[in-house]
Amino acid sequence: MNTADLFPVSLAELGSALLLGGISAALLLRVRRDERHSLLLSLLLVLTGLLVMAGGSLIALKMAAPMLGAGLREGGLLLFGIGILRVSGQSLFQFVLMPFGIPRIVEDLVVLGAYLGWTLVRLRDGGMEISQLLTTSAVITAVLAFSLQDTLGNLLGGLALEFDDAFNLGDWIKVDDVAGRIVEIRWRSTSVETRNGETVVIPNSVLIRSRISVVGKRSDQPLQWRRWIWFHVDYSVDPTRVIGLAEQAIRTAGIAHVSDNPPASCLFMDFDQSSARFALRYWLQRLDLDDSTDSVVRCALHAALTEAGIALAVPRQTIDVRQALPAV
């Protein structure tokens, strides 16, 4: 038995496919080392396909089971092709086309279409009439559409998010109790990295139905996020004096990532039960440093008020206790 008897394709075609897959894998590893797990799965599919093809050929020749052997050979070739298409598609989009900034969901859809095309080719070469398959697949399509409602919803949601261009990779968003930076948009879900070092995977169908806040993003304006610092001062202090001190303190403190345009502003917001309520507002340039910058701003504000002899108010409550006189 020679090597050509083991595989349903010529050695030249097999060698070309392996060479293409090897070059693609090398390019992918050079650019995206974080794709090692996905690359390993692709190579596993290629190896499994080769082994199944060889096993099918041996079964057909040694065990005189041509039908079983032919089925295994075709199945192995299908897996082999999917593995090659997977690693080639990853390399094409993440190495060759990476400078064009093509969304990840486009890669997923193109590779998925290549899988489908390769499967149809193998079914045709295996003797199945593709036109009859497409004609009689209406019921199967309806059943699949009903059973895969969530998956189709995620897919359509991902496409809607891409075409709508409501947000892009790198944008900071808030969805319900999740706030973070978008790091990936795929056909099924969108990945968001939070400030706590977590990666939250949100199904696209959920994003479509939710109210999303894109933090710091305004038309024709630089990326800045207005922050609010609340504090209370006793009613005995002139509010205009508090406002002047607070604004002057932040404008002259030279705090990193605090924008000078627009400048910080202070407002008298409300009359509380025992003190006046103020809000110091400033514009943050680094969206990932909100808490730390808020802390520095509070320190500068506290130092300025303390130096001016103004103490921050503490909640006070007056309780009037009366004792009823005994009846005469």
Q: Count of helical segments?
A: 10
**Tally of separate domains:** 3
Strand proportion, as a percent range, falls in 15-25%
Mean of the pLDDT scores? 78
Give, in spatial order, the strands making up the sheet with the most strands. 4-3-2-1-5
Tags for this entry?
five-stranded antiparallel β-sheet; 10 helices; disordered N terminus; 328 residues; SH3 type barrels; single chain; three-stranded antiparallel β-sheet; alpha+beta; elongated; 8 strands; 3 domains; 16% strand; Alpha-Beta Plaits
Structure description:
This protein is 52% helix and 16% strand. It is of the alpha+beta class and 328 residues long. The chain folds into three domains: 3-136; 156-215, SH3 type barrels, CATH 2.30.30; 225-307, Alpha-Beta Plaits. The strands form two sheets. It has a five-stranded antiparallel beta sheet. Strand 2 and strand 3 (189-194) form a beta hairpin. Helix 1 packs parallel to helix 3, helix 3 (66-96) packs antiparallel against helix 4 (104-125) and helix 9 (239-253) packs across helix 10 (290-307). Mean pLDDT is 78; it is low at 1-5.
